[in-house]
Amino acid sequence: MADQAVPHPHVSASPWWLQPVATVVILTGFVIYSIWVALQGHGYVAPYLSPFYSPPVRVGGIPISPAWWVLWVPAGFRATCYYYRKAYYRSYFLDPVSCAVGESRRRYAGETAFPFILNNLHRYMLYLAVVVLLFLWRDTIDAFVFNGHFGVHVGSLLFLLNVLLLTGYTGGCHAFRHLVGGNIDCYSCARAGRVRHGFWQWVNPLNLRHANWAWASLFSVVIADVYVRLLLAGVITDPKLF
Length: 242
Ligand code: FES
Prior knowledge:
Bound molecules: FE2/S2 (inorganic) cluster
Number of helices: 8
């Protein structure tokens, strides 16, 4: 019997260009959608506050959409994320485009010059993103309160799913993993070592699947906002489950 070619377990059957093209399409679509949402100037229908508008910030009488005061935090957090950097370097800049495919650049400057040097701010974006995440948890609790009473609607569950995915994405951040487990040789000897070890054990499995959390939470944010907008437009109702 003739030898049959057996594909390597890590070699994808899809063409090499599919992943970078899909990444460009999805990320570009997300950026365009985010700008459009911010230009709407509102994103609340009781009891749901769109994640693009949380926390609701108003500065004096400056007549700009409240979303602009907030969006730079999650945008900066994702743009400087180690996983997204890999994704957009490969897909937008073809750097490198794929394994075994030649690179397009002649010189490697790393992240030492503007604008990519800003990627080194990721750990600080993490601190700000955690603050925003706490507000999103508060919004999710509000999403279960209808006229002062506890209730569960489809929107409540969508908001819960969204904040869980965002928590998984943030919790698996490489900078967060370093924060809780970095620079430690011995947990039992370190200050607050038991707490840090507990966090580290929680973060590790999230970190392993960081790319999955990144994409899932990107979609869930959009879905939560679309749901709010469809309610606002009167296109759908918010079915009560119990
Ligand atoms: Fe992706 Fe920090 S590395 S969010």
